[in-house]
Design brief:
heterodimer; A: alpha/beta; seven-stranded parallel beta sheet; three-stranded antiparallel beta sheet; 10 strands; globular; B: alpha/beta; Methyltransferase, Methionine Synthase (B12-binding Domains), Chain A, domain 1; five-stranded parallel beta sheet; 9 helices
């Protein structure tokens, strides 16, 4: 593994790696990451990261030849088009489907298949590439989830260990610790439950999980990349898009997920963060790691209101995921890689001058930021401002509490200043959340004691998070 | 005398304690449980659904109203049973085999309960056999299935087929939903109904049971 020097990233109250919005640009991270076959992420250019998945199919022994054929078709189409379009480099994310983590040898077999094709295109077409393997967090296959032992955990660890030998260059994950509480809390607009999930449970699980991932990656010489609040803030984002929950709640949830994400970097992950981690700009600002982002390019997977602004400070630009279905031109994964390649080409052309990079970033920001509170919290100057506040303490709970309060303050200020549009029927929620936030105790122990009682009957096991009920 | 308009308002505004207390008081005073349900509680939930569909209410408001309705139903159901009146209907619900994404399913379950249905929630990763056994054992009129992954959607088809093989197709109706699921998919696999939102799911379930 060839990773640029790391300091004790975010391991204590610290100054963020990026302290000025002026220095916050796409394609450039304070701590770039080298991986795969000649790929350097965050060192000046934005690189496409493509992800793809199967069309509807049962994954079982009988269908395995078809599964292999689908992945063979997808990776070949993607690599060929990337080489034809002369991308600076290509990152492929293979996010396993649950049976491929439950039966890790299946996941390893597809990893080998993908890596072999990527190597071949490197040798024959000069395509620089890296493969990110993202095993599933299958621990919630049992309810309540067992987080630190059992066959599902064993399967995940086995796939972590098989990743390097199978040809993966990075490991990422969408971890789910705390989701048991967060799922209901987000539907109930229960701010205390959200903070308990994101500020207490999730960070404890992240520390446990990422310590294991980092150890495995170091053993096999590959990159422990990053996590995502996909199961948390993206759930909120999608629900907000469907007008099921207020957008201000989704915005608060996004920033509240930052301290959770930082834990991975505290224990040795180096980036890039996962593409669906829309909180990525905060990771880049605080920990200095390169980030993968997705926006309008991911409309094939889900809709959002941050299609342009999500790209403003990205280092990898992704499509999230697309099914292998036939479109008029060719198969969808190949279409995705072409769209990403052209997006990256435009960004990198603009960035040939500093003024060009700043102009492009500012257009990406300005085109979205005023229209939705979720976009507003991704403005580079807002990210820098809130990151400084979040970084001011080392405790994940305290960071989460501060993130919530500071985001609510920022949204209220920005609305009055005319910088962001917040719908009339959401204003009552801003007030309610502010009252709830004011009630969050400063002392973590006091908060945990309250939550253990309040969620005594909830479908989770406090002991799996190192808490004693 | 219990203020029955207060029952309507309590359900509409999600005041669980007031809804339960008003219902108890009204029943103690001899009110007709069927009338309480049909004249005050269901119209209140219908209004909640309307406000949601018009983007005035959000899901948290739907849920607190559904919980207020459920609290009131705790008093109504035994009285209804005494009169021989049948509940609106019984629904077996779960995510299909291999799918663990249950936020949508939980929301639909809560809304169905709020809509007066008896709901048997089988949880996640439910096999076709388990759906059918539960429907048969519980005498359910509807099986409601949810999937988030394209790779688990075939579990819906398998369940519909298993229902046919068990000779229950027609007597037990199926409804499906979830992000990748469409009306066309429902038509393709022979499911009886599809909904892309929780409020609509209640309306469709009512149609399926003829309520």
């Amino acid at each position: 593994m060839n990773v640029h020097p790391q300091s004790d990233i975010a391991s204590a109250a610290a100054t963020p790696a990026i302290s000025s919005a002026h220095d916050f640009l796409y394609g450039q991270a304070p701590r770039p990451v080298s991986c795969g076959r000649g790929v350097v992420i965050g060192a000046g250019e934005v690189i496409p990261e493509v992800n793809f998945t199967l069309p509807p199919i049962d994954i079982m022994e009988e269908t395995w030849p078809e599964v292999r054929a689908q992945y063979t078709e997808m990776i070949d189409g993607v690599c060929k088009r990337a080489a034809d379009l002369e991308v600076p480099a290509l990152v492929v994310e293979f996010e396993t489907l649950p049976p491929m983590t439950v039966f890790p040898e299946w996941g390893a077999e597809i990893t080998e298949l993908l890596a072999a094709t990527m190597r071949r295109y490197g040798e024959t077409r000069g395509l620089r590439s890296a493969l990110r393997l993202t095993p599933n967090d299958t621990r919630d296959h049992v309810r309540p989830p067992v987080m630190r032992s059992g066959s599902y955990w064993d399967g995940m660890v086995r796939l972590f260990d098989l990743a390097g030998p199978s040809g993966a260059d990075m490991i990422g994950i969408e971890s789910t610790g705390g989701k048991e509480i967060h799922d209901q809390a987000i539907m109930d607009a229960d701010l205390e439950g959200i903070v308990y999930a994101l500020g207490v449970l999730a960070p404890r699980d992240m520390r446990f999980l990422w310590t294991a991932i980092v150890q495995s990656c170091r053993t096999h010489g590959i990159v422990p990349s990053g996590d995502t609040a996909c199961g948390f803030a993206n759930t909120a984002m999608v629900l907000a898009e469907q007008r099921m929950i207020p957008r201000v709640l989704a915005a608060v949830d996004r920033v509240a997920s930052v301290p959770r994400g930082l834990v991975a970097y505290e224990v040795g992950a180096v980036g890039p963060s996962k593409d669906c981690a829309y909180e990525g700009p905060y990771m880049k600002a605080i920990a200095g790691v390169p980030i993968s982002m997705e926006g309008r390019s991911a409309a094939c997977a889900h809709l959002s209101t941050v299609g342009n602004i999500a790209q403003a400070v990205c280092d990898l630009w992704s499509n999230e995921s697309v099914q292998n279905v036939r479109l008029l031109s060719t198969n969808a994964p190949t279409v995705s890689v072409e769209q990403l390649a052209y997006d990256c080409r435009l960004l990198n052309t603009a960035a040939k001058t500093r003024a060009g990079a700043e102009q492009m970033r500012d257009w990406l920001v300005a085109s979205d930021a005023a229209l939705d509170p979720q976009a507003h919290v991704l403005r580079p100057e807002v990210v820098v401002k809130l990151s400084a506040l979040i970084s001011g303490t080392a405790c994940a709970y305290q960071r989460t509490r501060i993130a919530v309060i500071a985001t609510l303050d920022e949204l209220a200020r920005a609305r009055v200043a005319g910088e962001v549009r917040i719908a009339e029927n959401e204003l009552r929620w801003l007030d309610q959340f502010r009252k709830a936030a004011d009630g969050l105790p400063e002392c973590e122990d006091e908060f945990i004691a309250e939550m253990l009682v309040r969620y005594a009957d909830a479908p989770y096991l406090p002991g799996e998070y190192g808490l004693t009920a | 005398m219990a203020d029955l308009q207060a029952l309507y308002t309590a359900v509409l505004e999600g005041n669980k304690n007031l809804a339960a207390e008003t219902t108890r008081e009204a029943l103690d005073e001899g009110a007709n449980p069927e009338e309480l349900l049909q004249k005050y509680m269901i119209p209140a939930m219908d209004e909640v659904g309307r406000l949601f569909e018009e983007n005035e209410y959000f899901v948290p408001e739907l849920l607190i109203s559904a919980r207020a309705m459920k609290a009131a139903l705790e008093y109504i159901r035994p009285k209804l049973a005494e009169t021989g009146a049948k509940p609106i209907g019984k629904v077996v619900i779960g995510t299909v085999r291999g799918d663990l994404h249950d936020i949508g399913k939980n929301l639909v379950a809560a809304m169905l309960e709020g809509g007066g249905f008896e709901v048997i929630d089988l949880g996640v990763d439910v096999s076709p056999e388990k759906f059918i056994d539960a429907a048969r054992e519980q005498g359910a009129q509807v099986i409601a299935m949810s999937a988030l992954l394209t790779t688990t959607m075939p579990g819906m088809k398998s369940t519909v087929e298993a229902l046919t093989n068990a000779g229950l197709k027609g007597s037990v109706r199926t409804m499906i939903g979830g992000a990748p699921v469409t009306q066309r998919y429902a038509d393709d696999i022979g499911a009886d109904a599809f909904s892309d939102n929780a409020s609509g799911a209640v309306r469709i379930a009512r149609q399926l049971v003829g309520a």
